[in-house]
Amino acid sequence: MSKLINESSYLSGTGETNTFDTAEAVAESDELMREMFFSIVKETAGEEMLNKIMDVYKISETFSESHSSGDFDKLKNTLDALKLDETLMLSSAYSNLLNLHNISEHVATSMEERHARLDDIPRGPAKTTNGAIKGMVASGMDPNAIYDALCNQHVDLVLTAHPTQALRQSLLKNYGKIRNNLINLQRFRLSRFEREEILESIRCCIHSAWRTDEIRRSPPTPQDEMRRGLTYFTNTIFAGVPRFMRRVDTSLLNHGLNRLPLERSIITFGSWMGGDRDGNPYVTATCTRDSVYLARLQATTLYFKAIEQLIFDLAMWRCSASFRKVVDDIVANRPHEEDSVVFEIRRGRNYTDFWKTIPENEPYRVLLGELRDKLYETMEQLQKVVADPSIELDLDDGSDRFIRCKEDLSGPLMHCYESLMECGDEQVANGYLLDVIRQVQCFGLNLVKLDIRQESDRHADAVDAITTHLGMGSYKEWSEEKKIEFLKSEIEGKRPLIPHQLECSDEVREVLDTFKMVAHIQKKVPGSLGTYVISMATSASDVLAVVLLQRECGGTLETSLRVAPLFERLDDLNDAPRVLRQLFSVECYMKTLRNNEQEVMIGYSDSGKDAGRLAAAWGLYEGQEKAGEVAKEFGVHLTLFHGRGGTVGRGGGPAHIAIMSQPGGTVNGSIRVTIQGEVIEQDFGERENCFHTLDLNTAAVLEHTLKPPEGPKPEWRVVMKKMSEASCKRYRSVVFENPDFVPYFAQSTPSTELGSLNIGSRPSKRKPNAGVTALRAIPWIFAWTQSRFQLPVWLGMSAAFAEIKAQEGELSTLREMHKKWPFFKVTMDLVEMVLAKADLNVVEYYEKTLVDERLRNGLGKELRNELMTTIDHVLEIADRRELLVNPESKIEVDGQQCPAQHQQLKNKLQMRSIYITPLNVIQSAYLKKQREIEEMEASNDSSFDELKYDPSLPWAQDMMKLHPSANAFKSAVNDTLIITIKGIASGLQNTG
Asked: If you count Cβ atoms within 10 Å of the first and of the last residue's Cβ in the chain, which end, N or C, has fewer?
């Protein structure tokens, strides 16, 4: 470690240089933290335990380079020789090491992007907003056209809770501190004392994380998930948005253009935390209410702090005549200090300063002081409402004490801005005041707009209960045409439909309560809700039913939420154009569209689980094209809402290439994208990563809008259709038609054990029946990722490629598609990346340990062979000899030849594998142990009583503290298993 501290240019505190070697940065910080961690293990667990951990590291490092079965057996034998308590501790050690390694990669990526911006290094299409603007201007595009497009575009990033970040908040906070310290080591010129202090702080955080229980012992509530989501706004997003907007302003000004307009924001945020009730019984109407008020309180608190800072900044005495008049009115109406309790009230509020009456000759401070008082009063009201659900928020008491709408906040701030500009104080106006105005425009009064999501069947059940109660028959038994006619007549009619004494199930009552709560929230805190998303949408009646239920439960044309059908499964995606055409043909529905805008959500997770990745990708591509054509036919502006997951199996991948690979003409200046729970930390956990996320999404939408990618050649469409059909047929024949598949899946993966992770409030299945169909897409992907098989990403592709390659000359067509068609190249490159993370040694070990011999030698062998065949096909199409390795592919930076990104990724994967493989070996062994214990308990096997332990042993005492009513041996096995699942998930993040 002394070499790293004293000699490394990366950690020497010499400040930033003109070059940055990402691989070297990752390796050096990884070694630094590993050695720190090992020294802490020695102090806390003893030298003997440290030696065992280091021995496993050396053996695993050898295996990661050789991939030989002999080295794998040596690793297995070493781990098998460990005692139970040693295995538990080693699992925790490697889980910690993987999280520390993630920090190394995040910091290196953040610094790489920073250096690229500092040195204005080209980052490829849509990598940065500045790069996109420069590139389009250089190509001859009118700068004013670029400016207009940028000012009118809209990117909405929607944070979801599922799956919740597996790491506990306690660990995330420690890791966040480590990350910031590592960045400081690179960014600043430090004295020896400063460097040593930062290193000591890193060591302290590593020690704290190592000694923290990494298992979440109880599941979070949806309100907990909302609170955690809001921390990202407090830590990075709230300050990051105006910082990013300022950078865009600079780029525009450099091209002789104006700043971005102040009256709107080109980027906003949404949330599903507390609003997504699809299959989650814990998201109730009350939960949604709580989530809205939590966000409102957090926003008000942030604005209060911002206004306090502004009061310090705006000390000027000059102001415009109109501004002076407003201030004079405030002064004339406020009571004298000696005659009022206002002075005492302000003094009791612990304002940072200016708690006395602000003098008239500081006009901006007078106005901002009034604004601060209103924010404080509003905070107090919201705190009461959040603390006690029986208290109803009432900001309409006839007084002028509260901030009720966004204009109550933005109006005074804009008046300050305009006055400063009029008086010649432009620099001050475009300082921190501009940032706060941008924050208000972006975040409103709630930080995020909460979406509501519910499954289509639940709405049908509600309407069915109504029609049955009224003696009209069963709505669910009607034809689609009859449903539409009924819904149209009720939407157009004026009579109430829902009886006061409706007899219905608890589930239907909850649906109706949700609609009533939506109407109530829209009245009490307008602007706090976003879209009503209908999951598993299949028909126009699904949308019309929501429109009707909103109206019947108190909504109006002005307050009802926009409704977005979510097309998820392959058949639904293919049928979406017909459904939209039918929907747009309903006149009363078209009248509900604000500004003739329709939002449609497309699902990547369930489509992949339903048809396989290749067929789903093509279904999504064609579905977007055809939906756009239908919208254009009816004069509707279509915004597509992409329900992407973090993993490749659920549509994940780098945001800029994901957007740029969409069909031309489907973005059109607006897009909504989910940022799912497992990647929120990666995208927004650190300020540079936050900036990068905002930058690449904005840039990609701008470039796609102005320079949409060319569509595929007709012959490419024919090829994709054939491959999609062949891939889907093979995928479904295995997953849904082979009777051996479900038992093989259950035995070879920890699919049934994932529920004990407590990583989210939502159950792993929509309905409590067995099988793949009921299983949610997230645990489906999660389970296959754990065993390193990655099956959902590649299954079916081999059959598709084989069919096309069998036709003479088509291999050259596939290679041409890979080189020239962004959609196909992105699809193939992401699949190649996932295939590189698969490991047959690990897969075979899981099978030998856990799977029946018949299944292992039958379906298991068949699938392993198919994986190898798929790899061969991908290499042939990409014209490579090895996954992620192309010796002829080089990039030049500052005149130096550097390996392309694929080679860098391969190096990263090899470093990660050193930590992941030992956890795989332990997990498979402990899955077997746990299943044997469960069988003993289920059969009342007396041998279970023989699983005794010495209660004097420290590990047994620890287990009894954590699991006071359980067998210590069983508890230790279960905890070890959970730790391996979390560790592997950290190591294989964004890959499944």
From this structure: N
> Judging by beta carbons within 10 Å of its beta carbon (0-12, 13-18, 19+), is residue 390 exposed, middle or buried?
exposed
- C-alpha closest to that of 500 among 457, 458, 469: 469
Token output for 227: 């609170």
Please, are residues 920 and 942 in contact by the beta-carbon 8 Å criterion? no
pLDDT tens-digit series, residues 816-851:
999 999 899 989 988 998 898 899 999 999 999 999
From the candidates 207, 483, 609, 982, give the one annotated as an active-site residue: 609
Q: What is the pLDDT of residues 416-465, one digit of tens each?
A: 999 999 999 999 999 999 999 999 999 999 999 999 999 999 999 999 99
In the chain the domains, ranked by start, together with CATH numbers, are 1-121+169-212+911-992 (no CATH), 287-443 (1.20.1440.90), 449-651 (3.20.20), 714-883 (no CATH)
The one-character DSSP state at 158 is E
**Active-site residue among 162, 374, 524, 970?**
162
Verify whether residue 818 is a known catalytic residue.
Answer: no
Cα–Cα distance measured from residue 439 to residue 445, given in angstroms and rounded to the nearest whole number: 10
pLDDT in tens, 640-669: 999 876 566 555 566 777 788 888 889 999
Contact predicate 658/648, CB 8 Å: no
Nearest to 102 by CA among 802, 771, 915, 812: 915
Q: 122-132 burial, b for 16+ CB within 10 Å, e for fewer?
A: ebebbbbbbbb
pLDDT digits (tens, 9 = 90+) for 140-169: 999 999 999 999 999 999 998 754 556 677
The first and second tokens of residue 317, run together, are 């005495």
Please state, in angstroms and rounded to a whole number, the distance separating the CA atoms of residues 874 and 23. 26
Beta carbons within 8 Å of 500's beta carbon, 6+ residues apart = none
Distances (CA, A) of 743 to 105, 358, 746, 771, 850: 37, 74, 5, 9, 11
Contacts of residue 644, defined as CB under 8 A and 6 or more positions apart, other chains included, come to 604, 650, 651, 652, 653, 658, 673, 674, 676
Task: Provide the token pair at 603.
Answer: 């699902």
Say how far apart CA 473 and CA 484 lie, in whole Å: 15
Bridge partners of 564?
A: 533
The Cα–Cα gap between 939 and 465 comes to 44
Confidence of residue 187 (pLDDT cuts 50, 70, 90): confident
Angle between helices 69-80 and 840-850 (to 10 degrees): 50
Give the chain's length.
Answer: 992
User: Residue 846 contacts by C-beta under 8 Å, 6 or more apart in sequence?
Assistant: 748, 749, 787, 789, 920, 924
Question: What pLDDT, on the 0 to 100 scale, is given for residue 11?
Answer: 47
* CA 300 – CA 282 distance, rounded (Å): 27
Active site residue 162: yes
In the block, residue with structure tokens 């009533």:
516
